[in-house]
Design brief:
Elements: H1 2-19, H2 23-36, E1 81-83, E2 86-87, H3 89-93, E3 95-96, E4 106-112, E5 117-119, E6 136-141, E7 146-151, E8 154-159, H4 161-167, E9 182-183, E10 186-190, E11 196-198, E12 201-203, E13 210-215, E14 222-227, E15 234-237, E16 241-244, E17 248-249, E18 254-257, E19 264-271, H5 275-301, H6 308-332, E20 340-344, E21 350-354, E22 359-362, E23 370-374, E24 377-380, E25 383-385, E26 398-400, E27 407-410, E28 414-417, E29 422-424, E30 426-432, E31 435-442, E32 446-453
Parallel strand pairs: 1-16, 2-21, 3-25
Antiparallel strand pairs: 4-32, 5-6, 6-7, 7-8, 9-18, 10-13, 11-12, 13-14, 14-15, 15-16, 17-19, 18-19, 19-20, 20-21, 22-23, 23-24, 24-25, 26-27, 27-28, 28-29, 30-31, 31-32
Helix pairs in contact: 1-5, 2-5, 5-6
Length: 454
């Protein structure tokens, strides 16, 4: 029975391989079309997938790309250009040690709520700039569908929604989102005889025809990124002039700014391989691969109507040729595109490489300081921070101290600080005048206000 099953399986695979349109042919046609429109189309991270499997998984790994020798890059500096390489921040800057708050943590128990009550975070106040710093907690009682207010340890009410708002300080500080990161809009513009011309100044010469201009709202700063898939990334800022790297860009770049709009960050995935040349190599490889598959395809045809003994001989030949072909293909396979994220600032400095999905953000409390989070690590201004055990930074709910030395992270069950201290999950967080304030529910009934100089 086992031999019959093998025979039937091999026969069906032989028919598919012999008479069906090959996957490789489809890819070649598709890649050719992309090559014609490459000035507008996005180059994918991977331009080829594995070919269909043959008998005994003949090509299960044949299409895998391996790294080859990288092309040598021309590192000649020009007088009009500022050449900046991406910086390995951890190696150069080291790891910043844990930093505690600037002052003691202050704890105030506001009061206790009933089991039927829940805090109305949108209307509660943490006590900053609220009627002289008073703490006003608005709650909703599901038992009588009314609102109540806890103030100075006392409970008043019931109130309707409109009545409750009238009881609260008009200048109360509500919940403030920690993340103030904004994306800057891009404008596509043509190069003028190989130069970027902005604010009456020429930058270049540069290779390409188009560039993307990112400006802040008051037009006091900009980043102009040259659009050229055949040349390493080049961009311009008023402070750094022309900045050239030795890596190639991908389309999903973005420029980020902070709350004031004064800071601009270029966040961009880069690769050391020319994407266009790699695609051409991949197309050539696909053609070679399909040609070299033909002898094995011909062998599978011999199994049709053959005796069991002949089928076993064919299977042995296929296995041998499969191993030979795998070795041969691995030696000529083009390397895969590997993109990693880099960050560039207005002064032309580069930070990276980071994971391609690294989260980049500004904090409301952190001013011009920026953070990068990926693979359980946290970097502030490119410097890796020492993260307390049990904390895995993945959220943009992050507060950075104004000096960039400390941080606080809101996690699913707590708020954690850079010195290792942890507190119950905060329902309400506010940063104002150098003070971080948060409200917690403890023992399912006690409302506690914490604050510290941040």
């Amino acid at each position: 029975m086992r031999k019959i099953w093998i025979f039937l399986t091999c026969f069906m695979l032989a028919v598919n391989l012999a008479y069906g349109q090959s996957w490789g042919e489809k890819i070649i046609k598709k890649a050719g079309k992309r090559a014609e429109e490459r000035a507008k189309q996005k180059v994918e991270d991977k331009v080829n997938k594995k070919v269909d499997k043959t008998v005994d998984d003949a090509f299960d790994e044949a299409g895998n790309a391996v790294k080859g020798n990288k092309d040598k890059k021309d590192k000649t500096e020009k007088k009009e250009e500022v050449k900046v390489k991406p910086v390995a921040t951890k190696a150069e800057s080291g790891q910043r040690m844990k930093q505690g708050p600037r002052g003691p943590v202050k704890r105030t128990e506001v009061g206790k709520i009933l089991p039927s009550e829940s805090i109305d975070v949108a209307e509660s106040s943490g006590g900053v700039l609220s009627g002289g710093g008073e703490i006003s907690i608005a709650v909703y009682n599901v038992a009588d569908r009314s609102f109540y207010i806890y103030k100075d340890g006392k409970r008043t009410g019931p109130y309707t929604k409109s009545e409750m708002k009238a009881q609260l300080p008009a200048d109360r500080v509500k919940y403030v989102n920690a993340n103030v990161t904004r994306k800057v809009r891009a404008f596509q513009k043509p190069l003028q005889d190989g130069y970027i011309v902005e604010e009456g100044k020429k930058y270049g010469p540069l290779e390409g025809e188009l560039y993307y201009l990112y400006e802040n709202e008051d037009k006091s700063a900009f980043i102009a990124v040259v659009y050229n898939m055949n040349a390493p990334l080049a961009f311009v800022t008023p402070l750094a002039g022309v900045v050239k790297t030795d890596k190639y860009m991908q389309y999903d770049l973005e420029v980020l700014t902070n709350e004031s709009g004064k800071v601009l960050l270029l966040s961009i995935p880069l690769t050391s391989t020319n994407p266009q040349k790699q695609m051409e190599k991949q197309m050539e490889y696909n053609q070679i691969q399909m040609e070299k598959m033909k002898p094995i395809i011909d062998l599978t045809k011999k199994m049709q109507g053959a005796s069991k003994e002949e089928q076993m001989k064919v299977l042995a030949d296929i296995k041998r040729k499969k191993e030979e072909l795998e070795k041969e293909l691995k030696e000529i396979a083009p390397e895969q595109l590997v993109f990693e994220k880099y960050i560039y600032t207005l002064d032309g400095k580069g930070y990276g490489p980071y994971a391609k999905d690294a989260m980049i953000c500004f904090s409301r409390s952190g001013g011009e300081h920026w953070a990068a989070m990926f693979n359980g690590t946290l970097r502030i201004d490119g410097v890796e921070m020492q993260v307390p055990g049990g904390i895995y930074p993945t959220s943009d709910i992050l507060w950075i101290s104004p000096d960039g030395q400390r941080f606080a992270l809101k996690e699913y069950d707590k708020i954690a600080f850079s010195d290792g201290k942890e507190y119950p999950y905060p329902m309400h967080v506010t940063y104002e005048n150098g003070e971080l304030i948060w409200l917690c529910m403890e023992n399912k009934e006690s409302i506690v206000r914490y604050s510290l100089d941040f």
